[in-house]
Amino acid sequence: MARALPAAIRHIGPVAAGLGVLGLASFAFLSVCGRALGPAELAPLGTLWVLINALGPALFQPLEQEVGRSVAHRAASGQGARPVFLRATGLAVAAVLVTGLVLLVVREPLATSVFAGQDVLVLALFVGLAGLCAEHLSRGAFAGSGAFPRYGAQLAVDGVLRIGSAAVLAAIGVATAGPYGLFLGLAPVLAVAVTAARLGPAVRPGPHATWADLGGAVGWLTVGALAGQFVVNAAPVAVNVLADASEQARAGIFISVLVLARVPLFLFAAIQASFLPGMAALAAAGDTAGFRHRLNIVTLGVAGLGTAGLLVIVAVGPPLVRLVYGGEFDTTRADLWPLAAASGLFMVASAVGQALISVRGYRASVVGWTAGALTFLVVLLAPLRLELRVGYAFLAASAVATALLLLLMRARLRHPLTPADVATPPVPTAPGSTELTALPGETPTRRQSPWT
Known about the structure:
This protein is mainly alpha-helical. It folds into two domains: about 1-210, no CATH class; about 215-415, no CATH class. Helices cover about 75% and strands about 0% of the residues. It is built from 15 helices and two strands. It has a two-stranded antiparallel ribbon with strand order 1-2. Strand 1 (about 435) and strand 2 form a beta hairpin. Helix 5 (about 120-145) runs antiparallel to helix 6 and helix 8 (about 210-240) runs antiparallel to helix 15 (about 385-410). The longest helix has about 40 residues, at about 40-75. The chain is globular and about 60 Å long. The protein starts with a helix and ends in a 6-residue tail after the last strand.
């Protein structure tokens, strides 16, 4: 236990630091833009911010997860993962090209309905998605090889570029959303250029990999990620689409409030880079008790984090919004608390969903998130004021997803976790690496793992 804690700190610490910089920078980006542009002009830019940060992880985080797993597995045996990395890159590039084609086809209605007639924000969306594609692939390589300082550094550079560009544009008096959006999209592209020079085992020659090695798992992961991102990011898009001409300023205020209410999500994200492989290691070892223990600790921890965020929002939410964004951004506790509560529930659902994925419960994860997404659409039909209508839809979606994923996880844990079958002789590994090894006919034994 004493050795496991420093290992966890080494993994989580640099990622947490990078996410802290990115989170604060993103928060400051919208704050600076809000003061420079005003509520109405901020609305399409805030929607762009949400779409980039929703579609990017939904499309490419599954690839990051699979690349990270493959690189770690092969590196433990002294093998490179270039074939896997190239296959993943091919899938990612194909996804970007398809997304670009879709954006090209729908650019006019998208610009009119979502981006307040600003075509340049459609281009910014494409650039941002391409940049996040490169970020997630390189982060998979970093996580798989244990290069968490480089993982965190990339997050930090992305954040610094976001706020730096916004500060410069505001200082020179730019008062339209387009330039801010373009630099928001360019930030991840430049962050990869700065940090991804050395990808370690991911680009070293290794055993052949087929498309089947990636296809099935990544397919289910992508469906689940899309549904999950819909749950957490549909609210700002919905408020923009539903707002009429007289409600554009209110839509901009709502998006700004939503960003503030979701600040705890940045803190939760710090554990995700190592949480999934850590849970997968426990599952592979058949350590049901350890799996349950870690899952309980994480879910209780994120529930506590969400509760703390809710209490802060209820106590000082409205004046905090005005302090951060300016006097024009006036809101109420009634509009704020559903967003904060939904964010807390979403964190719990995300932790349980990751645990299901670690035991290859891909379909169960998809079921939970899809149920949440459908709930959002149903509650959105309620005849309420715009802000409450969208806020309650987000809250109901998060609650349904959380409840269903917990039930599915509980059902899975009624059966013991089966140890991984390893029929190959032991291979030399670096100190601290993970390997379940056994000679034919022997019971696998577990070595010290950096993930557990």
